[in-house]
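Researcher: We plan to redesign the surface later, but first we want a full-length starting point. Tokens attached.
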């Protein structure tokens, strides 16, 4: 176990790594890829530029998160779709790495009313589904830059190799590939906080740039305001 400096211990956050199995689940389940919950008369989200269906990345049922996170991120279902069309390079031309880019579609919905019998669009390289069946709780700590904002200097290489935790995870501290890049809420201007880290080629067969790492963030006060952004080295 990594030796944690006494100064940084007060900044410990719990994080949860998803435990997955291959295959899909019910429409309201937490999952990577597969079939999302869509309302009866709703169309599968499309990229506004290439007009192709967006790739379905992730769905989190906020009502079924670990007990410690109940109501933390609100209620309903969080969904993330992203344009992965390599023919048009929408991700590059329309800055898919930026929060609030229109080549990704992030939202929280309330699964009320009748759901449709979802049919996955015909597209190449549609991601295989993985169902989230449980969560592994771990301790997480901030990186060098965020610790510096608390007046703490981290120079332990062993620490840097272990925290923040890499890979897909729920809550915790973001693994920043470059600098600290929390977006601000478009309503109140407050700094948004991490909901879920989506890392390159963990549960999804997708790489953000050159081994980049992405983050779904949310305004603590306006919980329907969610965003996604990523960075690479």
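Model: Full-length starting sequence:
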């Amino acid at each position: 176990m990594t030796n944690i400096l006494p100064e940084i211990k007060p900044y410990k956050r719990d994080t949860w790594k998803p435990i997955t199995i291959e295959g899909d689940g019910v429409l309201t389940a937490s999952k990577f890829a597969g079939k999302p919950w869509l309302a009866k008369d709703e169309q599968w989200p499309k990229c506004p530029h290439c007009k192709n269906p967006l790739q379905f990345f992730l769905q989190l049922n906020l009502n079924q998160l670990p007990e410690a996170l109940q109501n933390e991120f609100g209620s309903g279902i969080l969904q993330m779709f992203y344009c992965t069309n390599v023919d048009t390079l929408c991700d590059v031309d329309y800055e898919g790495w930026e929060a609030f880019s229109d080549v990704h579609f992030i939202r929280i919905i309330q699964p009320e009313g009748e759901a449709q019998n979802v049919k996955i669009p015909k597209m190449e390289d549609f991601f295989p589904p993985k169902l989230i069946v449980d969560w592994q709780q771990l301790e997480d700590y901030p990186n060098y830059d965020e610790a510096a904002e608390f007046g703490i200097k981290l120079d332990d290489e062993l620490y840097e190799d272990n925290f923040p935790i890499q890979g897909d995870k729920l809550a915790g501290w973001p693994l920043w590939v470059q600098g600290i890049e929390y977006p601000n809420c478009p309503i109140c201007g407050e700094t948004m906080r991490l909901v879920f880290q989506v890392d390159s080629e963990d549960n999804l067969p997708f790489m953000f740039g050159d081994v980049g790492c992405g983050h779904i963030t949310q305004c603590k006060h306006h919980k329907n305001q969610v965003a996604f952004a990523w960075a690479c080295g």
